[in-house]
Amino acid sequence: MKLSSKALLALAISSITATAYAEPASQDFVPTTLAGTSAQGEAKGFIEDFSLGGTTRNWYSHESKYRGGTFAYQKHGQTLTDRNRTNWVQGTILNASSGFTQGTVGVKTEVAVYNALVLDRSKRDIKGGSNRTLADSNGDAVDQWSKLGLANVQFRVSNTTLTAGRQNFSSGIVDTIGNRALPSSFQGVSFNSEEFSNLSFQGGVFDRVSPRSEQSLSKFRTEYGNGAETDKVSTLGVNYQPLKSLKTSFFAANVKDFWNQYYFGATHELGDAQQLGLTTGFNYYKTVDEGKKEMGEIDNDTFSLSLGLTHQAHSLTFGYQQVNGNEYFDYLHETNGIYLANSLTSDFNGPNEKSFQIAYAINMAEYGVPGLKFNAYSARGWGIDGTHYTGNNGRAKFAYDGIQSQDGEKHQEYGVGASYALQSGPLKATTVRATYVEHRGSEFQSDGSIKEFRLVTTIPFNIL
């Protein structure tokens, strides 16, 4: 149960999907009862429910740094720089999934092959690839590559499923991220239990991550750290819906020798979107150092609050976010484990940072063009202060190097976007999304000043 999108603008877009027949959000209490049906009891069989399909995504990005910023790349042993970077990749997923066998204990297998075809192979354009285009040690693009993105076996009893192997997982701390040509996935063991009507439990232990733009598995690192690795991430949580209009989620995670992290999220809906609807979202993270403290000493409290007003086709959303801690609010690299409202191109998660965002979205279905949406947003962050950071724990290599220079830093970001989803025909559900984002940071703000245009086309397909 994902309570908040990675970006507030996504919340704004999703909040305007109400039809002309929308009803006021019910505030009724939801009693906790046993689930009325058993998913395993309705199993069709290993072969009978077999499916083969997937998606193919054309992912294009052009970035330009400004105010003195540059990208670097190697050519003939020399380091060259310029302001631009372009990545263009076709990512295809072919997924084969069996059904569950019948009986008390159902068994299912899932295998997905991920393939990337690089369409822009210029060393100068890709600038080493980063996490967008896979490049070799010389900075040359790997023209085409494949890997097993998913490979797991699942066991199910009633409404509880145990999954072992390479898999997707979604929670407020450990979450598959899919904002490139291919998504990430995790290797380990997890479970999902939905034995009650409004109460579910999730958990998992993972030792490796399959990155978005890499062929091999990797140990877990953090988004803002400087290289420390861990090979064990454990998480456990609960999703609870006490009211028809209120959903909550609580998760805890132990990242071995890094930190213990706790997450609470809630969303509440009020009113009628055809008249005036209000969606409130709250997300809170507590992070404290653990074990060998490879990321140094950490004591961080970070939260966000968003308020979304919806009237028919229009949505206006406000988001406030605050970091209480002398280090970044950090999360696991190659995950979407940051459900904060103001996580955009910049995460707005500097030490002691405060930020505010306003977003507008319009759903053109209300005007006779279903599938077409537009959005715009503007966000500002201020008060970034890392001068009190002392948490390197004698491990300068792995601590948040340079954070002490951030004294009163600030930044701003704005973006516009348009998306269209085909409503019928052989390419039904194909989506095309174009976005333009501009970010400007002060001298020591970590994200710098950059402009980016993206054009992403995703086509689903079914073979069997």
UniProtKB/TrEMBL annotation:
<dbReference type="GO" id="GO:0015288">
    <property type="term" value="F:porin activity"/>
</dbReference>
<keyword id="KW-0732">Signal</keyword>
<dbReference type="InterPro" id="IPR023614">
    <property type="entry name" value="Porin_dom_sf"/>
</dbReference>
<keyword id="KW-0813">Transport</keyword>
<protein>
    <submittedName>
        <fullName>Porin</fullName>
    </submittedName>
</protein>
<dbReference type="GO" id="GO:0016020">
    <property type="term" value="C:membrane"/>
</dbReference>
<dbReference type="InterPro" id="IPR005318">
    <property type="entry name" value="OM_porin_bac"/>
</dbReference>
<feature type="signal peptide">
    <location>
        <begin position="1"/>
        <end position="22"/>
    </location>
</feature>
<comment type="similarity">
    <text>Belongs to the outer membrane porin (Opr) (TC 1.B.25) family.</text>
</comment>
<dbReference type="Pfam" id="PF03573">
    <property type="entry name" value="OprD"/>
</dbReference>
